[in-house]
Amino acid sequence: MIDLLQLQKRVYENKIAKGFNVTDIYQEFCFLYGELSEACEAYRKKKDDLGEELADVALYLIGLSELLGINLEEEIMNKMEKNEKRKYETINGVLTKVKE
C-alpha cells in the first residue's frame, strides 16, 4: 500500500536533491500537461513505455500537490465519496449527471 502523503514528500525531496523546479507552479502545470501528452502519444502508438509515461504523469501531479500544500490522498478520497453519491441518467444518448 502506498502512503500518498509520504510519497508527496519523497517526490519533493527528490526535486530538491536533483535541482528541479520547486517554485514556479505554472511551469509544473506545463510539465504535467507535457507528460500527459507523452502518455497519450504512447497509447496512440501502442508503445511499450505507456506505464512509465503514466507514472511520470502521477509523479508530476503528486509533486505539484506537495508544492501547493495539498494532501492529495485526502482530496482523492473526498472526491471518490462525492462521485459515488452522484446519480447519472442517459438523456438523448448522453450520460448526464442528474443528482449531486
From TrEMBL:
InterPro entries: DCTPP
Record Pfam families: MazG-like (PF12643)
Domain of life: Bacteria
Molecular-function GO terms, alphabetical: nucleoside triphosphate diphosphatase activity
Gene Ontology terms: biological process: nucleoside triphosphate catabolic process
Protein name in UniProt: Pyrophosphatase
Taxonomic source organism: Paenibacillus antibioticophila
